Amino acid sequence: MIRLVRPALPAELAARLPELTEEIGNATHRTRTARALWKRAVVRRNVHAPLRRLLEDMAPGYQRCMYCGDSQGTDIDHFEPLSLNPLRTFDWLNHLLACSTCNSNLKRDRFPVAEDGTPLLVDPTTEDPFDHLLLTLSLGVYVARTEKGEATIDVCGLNRPVLTQGRVHARRVVLMCLSRWTAGRARDAADEMREAVLTVRGQPFADVCQAMLRLARSPGADLVFEETPWALAVLRDEELRTQLLA
Asked: What does the pLDDT look like over 52-102, one tens digit per residue?
């Protein structure tokens, strides 16, 4: 999970969503009405489609799930579930792109809250997931830094084996690309350098590269990269960082 920037809605869509919310608010059975509206054919065509395009553009890599970062996002997920707060069904700030596994099989209607009522799930569009989650690069495992991180790992199944194994593989890919980028710069081969960057940016598990870039500047960086000390200097290179963080 990485920090994402949510764009503003186009004017026509921004005007349409409050109308749908008002229709839900005026209904006797709000949850039932919200579900019916969300499934309505004209809404799928005129609301779902543009919402999905916006979410795909802001998702990591090639339209990856905003929770696990592995599978392609197939669903518009309601961060705060429709069943718990139907008035947020058409709230743009409540929409994330998720894969069917994260959305339908794991998260579903689970939405833990703290004693003060604030959400215990990390919303990557309003906060930095790295404040709550620490990625152990060698194992591909997330360790919770906060109560919110712990709840997010649990609800989204962030440490299920297919994800931890995928992150370990992603780390290998990043390291190979760092080596290729370095070799390309030594030969002044701009195309080779560009290809290495595009490979990293396009692969699943964008959180692995993001974690590597951050940890390279952390106080314990030498220990984290003890097995690959050569990579530390590359990850600290401003030219490369600018390209990978763009």
From this structure: 999 999 998 889 999 999 988 899 999 999 999 999 999 999 999 999 999
Instruction: Examine the domain organization and report whether 72 and 172 are in the same domain.
Output: no
Report the alpha-carbon distance of residue 33 to residue 31 in Å, rounded.
Answer: 5
Examine the domain organization and report whether 83 and 175 are in the same domain: no
CB 67 within 8 A of CB 207: no
Is the same domain home to 19 and 120? yes
pTM comes to 0.90
Domain that holds residue 181: 161-245
Report the C-alpha gap between 218 and 210 in whole angstroms. 13
Report the C-alpha gap between 112 and 154 in whole angstroms.
Answer: 10
pLDDT digits (tens, 9 = 90+) for 157-169: 999 999 999 999 9
- What number of other Cβ atoms are within 10 A of residue 158's Cβ? 26
Return phi, psi of residue 77, to 5°. Answer: -90, 140
Reduce the DSSP state of residue 6 to 3 states and report it: coil
